[in-house]
Amino acid sequence: MRPALSLTYFKITAYLRSHRVILPFGGLLVVMAILYSVRVNVGQELPSYADSAALLVPVFAWAARGLLDAEPDVQRLLSITAVGRPGREVASGLLAAVALNAALALVALVVPLAIGFSATPGPQALLGGLALHLLSLLTGTAIGALTSRPILPDPAVAALTLLGGYAGILLLSLVPVTWLTVPIISWMRAAGQGDFLGRSLPGLAGATLFWCAVALFAYTRLRRTRP
Amino acid sequence: MRLANLSFRYARRAPWVLRDVDLHLPPGTVAEITGRNGAGKSTLLRLLAGVTPPTRGRITDRPEVVGYAPEIFPVEQPFTVLAYLTRMAAIRGLRPAVIDPWVDRLGMAALLDVPLADLSKGSAHKVGLAQALLAPPGLLILDEPFSGLDAQARAELPRIVADVAAAGGVVVVSDHQSGLAGYPGIRHLHVGDATVQPADAVAAAVDSSPASGTVVIEITVDAADAEAVAGKLRAEGYQPVLRTAEAAMPGRPMPEGREEPLPAGQAEPAGPGAPATPGAHDAGEDR
User: Fold this and answer.
1) ipTM value
2) Lesser CB count within 10 Å: N end or C end of chain A?
3) Which residues does A contribute to its contact with B (CB < 8 Å)?
């Protein structure tokens, strides 16, 4: 476990030192500026969090892809021999991407508390916002992993697939069949209705986690032949 | 460590890079891999290191600790040499002190605070070697380890290889620079035509050839194709001589060269300038 965590730390350090984080961080700031340039009225905090979670999916995906691609290809091979098994290297990369996105999601949760909301929201809105950003960062991490260099070596194809994938998910989730894809549109719709935590979240979380698990399973399977 | 029926290709319909390779590398083995560019040497090394999975077949009894030094160390990383090696040691669960002996042996003291991106080729190669040696490797894979090294490191590397082998480790080296020439007990393996075979027979054939440096290549062809094959070789400037398979059997008298298709014949081309008499020095090796 310790070698895998050391490799996770190594990957995050390499990513941060490479300054690649500037782009997704800039994207996060743009989303925050758009959403919170006008103060959110009391009672509208959860819908705002839902909009934030939906808009940040491509930012999380870009950050995850950038982190996984920060290492040169040969260094990935050296990391595999150092950590002992290819599976540990894959797990370390995903853990590093989730950790990075968790930090970005924390910023997205805290910024509106400081400058976006008219009043501090209640625990329902805070928990709902936290849950939605967790789902968002997992979705973004899965998309970013599937468009990382071992899977899609061409940067142009990878970038188009990332953005196209997000657009496709948005379009598909317009269909009122929650399980068809990650229900991003349903996140936003449900957040505007009552009893989000008790009535809507379990189903939305189930569908989201299912598709994220499918995507991450596909990524780990593909990485077996794409070290 | 044993390779059984090991096959690899990069895509479903791509040609086989390696096919049905069987190989046994007992503890203490030092093996040198040779072969032309693109023959699959680096692929074999990555399969051995466990970073690339085989398409078919398996590798068993691979040692727990593997050190892999790549042909080109990736310098595009935002670390100094010391920071990089410290982190690689941590990934192996080791303290930073394990770096010190390799700093001395490879002559890296002046490099420790240098950013990886600023390293020369040889210095970067030393970092690649050092990270592979941080933990005593049970399997050490070296891809062109002598490339760009200074005299001190070149002299030290065979001693490092000997230390790893003496401790029961397996060392596999791809080496175009013959840095391990004369290493006692080294095993030569030749990669070519998707196979891995002992290179000693090929080397012996070349070594035993006369001063002109020519060898005889025997090619068995179908009788109906013999004249066509001979024609292609003539077009390349060689002098093929056709013989019946019976005539080419060891222990039987060799007939005078003649150019006519014969049942189950053998075309025996010799290089330009080679003796015209067939069978003058039969290497007995298809190449």
Assistant:
1) 0.91
2) N
3) 2-3, 6-7, 9-10, 13-14, 17-18, 71-75, 77-86, 224-225, 227
